[in-house]
Amino acid sequence: MPRASGGHRTYLSPVVITIRCDRCEKRLTFDDSFAGEKVECPHCGDVNRLPTPDAQGDIGAPGSRGPAAPAADRASAAGLPPDDGPEVRVLLVRPSLLRSKPIVSAILAILPLGVSILLYATLPADARAPGWLLTAIPAAGWTTLGVWALLVRLSSSLEITNKRTVLREGFLSRSSSEVLHDHVRNIEVSQSFADRCLRVGRMGISSSGQDGIEVEMSRVPNPRRVREIIDLYRPL
Q1: CA–CA separation, 43 vs 26, rounded Å?
Q2: Which of 19, 45, 118, 190 lies at a 20 to 30 A Cα distance from 2?
């Protein structure tokens, strides 16, 4: 913008922040208003943190600021991947059927065997089914339970990286939603008494830019531990 100075006009170049992407190393330029925030690289999709306004240095662009000195990294102190640097997976969470439905799972596991034993014990010897059929009944029941548990497990995933949380859902068709850790406003964990004993529950994550819960997943194993990991990457 022009500024009057001794009858002459001088033009101040806009203040921008220029960095290199942690992953693809391409030069990225952003307006000064994004200082201190995490931004997505348009070339490779990696998330990079912009330096704060008090950063010093220059990497070659007028009005630009170089990378800030790293602040205390709570995640690194806890033995997790650092907050800065290339984006890496910290944790992959999949829903657990056996923990979330223990009674139903137990019934489906015991019932086929019980039916097989009951048929063998109550039917007359000349009316009993062949031995292989009595064995096939519990095998079919356990296979059904295993396939159901596998489908539930593969139906969705919650990927926590050092920069964001991504929810992916679906088999043939896929949908995804994500929230940057810097933008997380609230993390909800809902557990019944049984859920607390079995360490499973529902998680919901909302960001400062949206109303309501953006990322929600049921049957999450160890949801409180997952929340603790995300909190380590959230700004204080």
Answers
A1: 8
A2: 19
Q: DSSP label at 174?
A: -
Q: What are the pLDDT digits (tens) for 56-77? A: 444 444 444 444 434 458 888 8
Q: Which two tokens stand for residue 223?
A: 């949801």
**Kind plus residue range of the DSSP H or E element containing 217:** strand 215-221
CA-based nearest residue to 106, from 147, 134, 145, 136:
145
| Gap between the Cα atoms of 185 and 44, Å rounded | 26
Global pTM value: 0.66
What's the pLDDT tens digit per position in 136-149? Answer: 878 888 888 888 88
Structure tokens at 70: 């790293």
DSSP codes of every residue in 18-84: EEE-TTT--EEEEEGGGTTSEEE-TTT--EEEPPPTT----SSSTT---PPPP---HHHHTTSPPSS
Estimate the crossing angle of helix 102-122 against helix 131-154, to 10 degrees: 170
From 145, 157, 167, 159, select the one nearest 98 (Cα to Cα): 145
CA distances from 168 to 177, 194, 224, 228 (A): 7, 27, 20, 21
H or E, element range at 122: helix 102-122
Token duo for residue 133: 């059929």
